[in-house]
Amino acid sequence: MEVKDVLFMRRGVGASSYSRTSTFIQKIALLTRPVVTSAVRSLLLEQAFPSSGLFNVADLGCATGPSTFVFMSTVIDAESSCCEGAGSKESSYTWEFLAKAIESLVSEGEVSKEKLDTLNVPYYTASPEEVRSIVEAEGSFAVESMETLVLEAGGGSGGDDPWERGRKSADQLRSFTGSIIAHHFGEEIMDRLYGVKLAHLLGDDFANGGQRKGVTMVTVLKKT
Question: Domain of life here (predicted)?
Answer without folding.
Answer: Eukaryota
